[in-house]
Amino acid sequence: MAIHVEGLLAIVIFYVLILIVGIWAAWKNKNSGISEGTDRSESIMVGGRDIGLFVGGFTMTATWVGGGYINGTAESVYLPGSGLAWAQAPFGYALSLVVGGLFFAKPMRSRGYVTMLDPFQQLYGERMGGLLFIPALLGEIFWSAAILSALGATLSVIVDININMSVVISALIAIFYTLVGGLYSVAYTDVVQLFCIFIGLWISVPFALSNPAVSDIGVTAVNTVFQSPWLGEIDPSDGWMWADNFCLLMLGGIPWQVYFQRVLSASSASYAQVLSFLAAFGCLVMAVPSVLIGAIGASTDWNQTSYGPVSPVQKDESDMILPIVLQHLCPPFISFFGLGAVSAAVMSSADSSILSASSMFARNIYKLAFRQSASDREIVWVMRITIFVFGALATAMALLTGSVYGLWYLSSDLVYVIIFPQLLCVLFVKGTNTYGSVAGYIFGLLLRIGGGEPYLRLPPFIYYPGWQTREKEQRLTREVERFVEQRFPYKTVSMLASLLSNAAFSYVAKYLFESGTLSPKYDFLDAVVSRHSKETMDKTTLVTHDNINLSELAAVRPRHGGSLAGTFVNTDVLTDEGNVSPDSSTEHQ
């Protein structure tokens, strides 16, 4: 196997630059937050809560702008029958950041949470927090594995090096600087990586456009030349599917730790909102070169290029259209610079996902659920170990699992149908409890899994209205695969069912226990009786008996121990009055 020396040199330069910036960021901020009394573990997770506007804007943009974003956008625009009309990621994720900034960033940041799971464990308890950790963890791990897998394929196209070697080296670099510096290293390397992506792709676009094999993209946008127009169209019969997928991106893009670790690292709640809006603009800007590269691919006569007469879509290589355009339509030195940009994009996604998964495990599972007395040093070491373990797991999946994208699609759907409605309830719906949370979790899980997942060859056991049987031919093997296509917006319906069942079961459970219909001994989740014991006690009886003084009564045992409840909220950052959780008025009376 031949190795292109220039391409390998370009990758080495980019990787060394990113590694140096990551180590420098860790050294520069090694004592940040410690002097103010912040734990070292919290400093690693949320960067001492002093991330400024410039670095914060870049790292918030990098929440979604990574290898999957730029490659996926180019692929959607290029694919015949899809086109720009179905390239939903740029607008979907941009609106996700806008909605997150408007409604979620301020309450989460102003209450001083450290991870996304904190409000769940505060309101619903440690066990429910552990259940919600599962889809959150799977989403982060599968996302990291998917983009590492894409990186290996991309590098092998241009540089012609071993896929396994490129994936392992990239993962090791991302794991190393994340281990050393935590969120600081992730944030500062995001600045470098986004610059690399923007400059690398924009340098490549003019050369690709001027290639003699490329037709006018303005003409191919609306006319069939080499394939169907790249603008694409939305058939009226596909409208519900389009809307379902768009809602998945817009609303399902909010309840991710990769987003909230940036929100919670902002220096104030208002800054967190501003960073979200800046990142939304950044998402749109960073998508432009990818859209153009996809359009260029759709406007190319591949018979005139070194790629050969068979187009990428006929070779089943449409997912690699971006590196193919860079290699075959640009001069070598330009394509190698663009390759470095793609590699940088992948690491900007992988590092933050690995840090997110380890932060949630170390704090919400290890500390709050198992070892509430764990020292800060112990938590730091748990984080370091899990960063390595989760990074190794994502790398292994990228190398060994052929259906890693299917796993990520399914896990991202579960984040949307399970965690998003739970987040809505815990922040904005007063009176929800653990019984409702469990019911919402089960309803969302069953309704989504019931719809099946073609990428994993998971057959449905719920056939929603409008379902159809489709056939897909593998272009290389000519095998015909049949699968069920759910044309009903079942993902959004599953999310709404989860939301409504959470509220309904919560209120039913609350009524049954507080009305005396069910004995307090049946409150096995300690979700109603012990939580609202002060409200359900007959205060009138206690006060009217002269021989009983309220000051002599033993305090009602709280649902969480004092040390546990105190770990969720950092009172030093509660600066925004009025931003209290729906049930905090009863907890702190």
Topology diagram in text:
Layout: H1 5-28, H2 40-46, H3 53-61, H4 67-78, H5 89-110, H6 118-124, H7 126-158, H8 163-181, H9 183-209, H10 217-220, H11 239-252, H12 257-265, H13 269-298, H14 321-329, H15 332-370, H16 376-400, H17 404-428, H18 434-449, E1 468-473, E2 480-485, H19 490-514, H20 533-536, H21 539-544, H22 562-568, H23 584-587
Antiparallel strand pairs: 1-2
Helix pairs in contact: 1-8, 1-9, 1-15, 3-9, 3-13, 4-13, 4-15, 5-11, 5-13, 6-7, 7-8, 7-14, 7-15, 7-16, 7-17, 8-9, 8-15, 8-16, 9-13, 9-15, 12-13, 14-15, 15-16, 17-18, 17-19, 18-19
Number of strands: 2
Number of helices: 23
* Percentage of residues in helical conformation: 55-70%
**Quick one: biggest sheet?**
2 strands, antiparallel
Low-confidence stretches: 533-566, 569-581, 584-589
Mean pLDDT: 82
What is the ordering of alpha helices and beta strands?
HHHHHHHHHHHHHHHHHHEEHHHHH
Query: Strand fraction band?
Result: under 5%
- Cα-to-Cα separation, first versus last residue: 71 Å
Write out the strand line-up for the largest beta sheet, numbering strands in chain order. 1-2
- Structural class determined from secondary elements: mainly alpha
Instruction: Give me the Rg, rounded.
Output: 26 Å
Label the overall shape: globular
Subunit structure: Homooligomerizes at cell surface. Interacts with SEC14L1; may regulate SLC5A7.
InterPro entries: Choline_transporter, Na/Glc_symporter_sf, Na/solute_symporter
Keywords: Glycoprotein, Ion transport, Membrane, Neurotransmitter biosynthesis, Sodium, Sodium transport, Symport, Transmembrane, Transmembrane helix, Transport
Organism: Cirrhinus molitorella (mud carp)
